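Sanity check

After download, print the first record. It should look like this:
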Amino acid sequence: MANPSLKACFDRKKFVVAPGIFDMISAKVADGMGFDCLYVTGFGTVASGLGLPDAGIATYTDMISRIGRFAQMSRTPVIADADTGYGGLLNVRHTVMGYEAAGVSGIQLEDQEVPKKCGHTPGRRVIPAEEMVLKIKVAAEARRDPNFLIVARTDARTGLGLEEAIRRGRMYGEAGADIVFIESPESEAEMVAIGKAITDKPLLANNVEGGRTPILSKARLEEIGYGIAIYPAVGFLAAAAALERAYSHLKTAGDSNGLPASESYGFGRICELMGFPEVWDFERRWAQPAAKE
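Expected structure tokens:
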């Protein structure tokens, strides 16, 4: 079942900040920090799980077990990337039902052609808006829980321009999407225009460090009409940089002595995060006496 607290945030117009999660360590760290929502990044999940680019290679089967685990192990509501729904209308129906059954609180569907590409990379092409409208209607019909949210993303801005992207955003909201996501506007002025044009649905801002869209403050996003900001890459970019620093030190020094404490989460702390204290308590309570010779 979807976590009703996420829909409640939007119902009372509370701005939502959602960090990107990509593996269970990132999920457990973020889950303990009091966010209203966690965002399962397709880029990061495919990269960490398969070691491949987010270019339409991963399938529903590749993703569903990992996404379900994120939802199962997190107290915080989870919105998960589902690319194009992994195919046609029947695939979209199956994907929505699967994500909802897995415990996800929101699903993101986009209007790219198959195979899709990462939203801040070049060469993206979109299907006709009318085809995406049908996908959204199917998704809305397929869900069982009204707290399960549908995020409709259009990638039309890069290839077809801002006006077409806004037109599609309106159409997708009218078709049943709960949140409208216009991918990769290229200036603050464009984001302001989107906020003025679409006022009946929460707008999603995709904040990618080094991406095509300027990263605005939470206060500014609220001011211009956005309702949620996702930061899909912030976690895996930081993790990759930290790993590179640690491995570089090991390669140069030949051991981990001298690695700054700030570069390490700490073994005791990671044991606690992963739940070892509960395991150790269980073992103490159920300890068996040593067998006699």
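If your output differs, re-run the checksum step. Summary of this record's structure: The chain has one domain: 4-238.
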